[in-house]
């Protein structure tokens, strides 16, 4: 304690300034000052369309698979779009489901851990129910007829082939027992340890630990043919290779046209050796190895000789070069492009800061990742033994280069590398330059949200005004956010949350997401089950061209009669869509707004209240009310602080009506730069003395008619639509108290949260404050 690092980003390079003892206070103050700079100046937009679990189900926009009650923990998914099935790995089970019909279970394999292994696990002090089961954690495609599967096997990992058969109609689905082999170096022991593995050309590349305690973690390559003992790994217990890594993803990405150059890229977070010797700091990394690396001859035997890693930065530039870093990588998605060597890399990050909780999405180009690996190496040197840029001689062939006979006949394999290359590789895994995101800032950020982001998939969509990357972000509380980031001037981007969907009934982290572009579906898994969601719900945006346009959903367009799916190739009709600006004025034949919205007549009784309903379609809409009194020429704004006027979520409540309140009330919606009329009411105020004692309860009472306009035809005119037998007044009163209670609750909740987080902050930073 007493030491903290202040990160300063200068010319894209991180320098760490050391502050000790009393400086901690200054630092704390600084952080507290900086915090509002992020959370207050940025107004975080709400999702335009928010659908609860019940909304999704009742709109038939979600289907689910819940297993058979014995399984759960659905971490592994494998989708075969062509044959139309989805494999799901859970606790002790593998399921084969129909892509289009999750409710109908196609096949199931029961694959528990052996009884003696469960007993072993229990004796080692693990929880029998949660840990000592076979948690299926990996499903990889192998060949046309088989998939490769790994499970934790009650803290004794195992892998096997699953036979899927040839036919598409009635697939065979079984796990031949003779194919079961050890999963060491392929799958972790623990059901929760973050891990990654990828099959490529019959080899499994995995980032996992190989011991019960999870302390010996490495990047492995093992063969999946039989029980071949041959493997390659990173050196064990050497913190400059890997230091308490938590693996997130791995992907084969070709570097050039030559297969000799093929590499596997790994993404993970780890305790950063270069950040400090005293303070634990987590950084995110991208690392790579050559697929044809077979280890060294005299030294680095069965160890990678081409392993390099670089820091992956996701930060928000702040004033005075002081950046806010999102250091902990949570998930990576590799978006394929036409050029196989240059996919786009999307990363989801969270903060390790104790001051605030936040998540961000950053995007990286392969060019920037390659630039870091082609740049200078880092090196531990000097009297204080710090990590600095290596400025010495770099041996030939450049460390990290894949051996290639066509390029240099002397270096057919990594065993032919000269000794100086091998000894350089023993100490220089870390690159000096970090990898910075495109535009040097996140494309999406949440700092005050009640959830954090865990998973990402991305769909590249062609729209009328260009191409958009639609991000699907899984949260730790059962939600999927559908987000687009729209480029603006000055490298800025506008974040638009199109939809926020609550996929599961209970709050639970999203564990995995699979995207089917062919079926335009998303498969989302959690501990509870698996859900299938269409990528778009255009009809829910509304019944008018204007609503469809305002939605800014690249999947949806106005086709002349409805808001429906947009097909870029479909040139039959003009489609109305404006993702960039969401401005219906350019797209829709806008009728004169005042004519389009019907004026409704409302009677109020002097001294009583009345309620004018106006519900906007989107959470992003700002609602404004104006009133024009009978003798006035202009209408004026009704301000929220006006006496007797209450602006509520679903409309306007006018209390203790006065004859002067009569007039034309207009509800205006403002979204982006576009404003339109949602509702118009002509309010007539009936003087109290003109209403007999109980006019509302006596149908047919015609003795006392209001003096203005059309007289009410029956007592029903005194009631609001859909309020049952309540009078206008009773209804309003109820609404008013409900709203008041809701606001009170919100206020006290916010106050409590603020107090709690203040307390937590003080506790964390003040060693004198006793910990609970
Ligand atoms: C959802 O599906 C059910 C059964 O197929 C149907 O009765 C219902 O009308 C559908 N609801 C909507 C909103 O489409
Ligand atoms: C796929 O791999 C399995 C396991 O090695 C093997 O038994 C099977 O014959 C292979 N199928 C094809 C079509 O190559
Ligand atoms: C007006 O309010 C009074 C007192 O709250 C109530 O008795 C009366 O029924 C109300 N009139 C109407 C028309 O709602």
UniProtKB/TrEMBL annotation:
Does Transmembrane appear among the keywords?
Answer: no
Q: What is its main location?
A: secreted
| Keyword tags | Differentiation, Disulfide bond, Glycoprotein, Immunoglobulin domain, Neurogenesis, Secreted, Signal
Gene Ontology molecular function: chemorepellent activity; semaphorin receptor binding
PROSITE patterns associated with the record: IG_LIKE, SEMA
> Where is this gene product found?
Secreted
Q: Which family does it belong to?
A: Belongs to the semaphorin family.
Q: What's the protein here called?
A: Si:dkey-49n23.1
State the species of origin.
Answer: Scleropages formosus (Asian bonytongue)
Gene designation: si:dkey-49n23.1
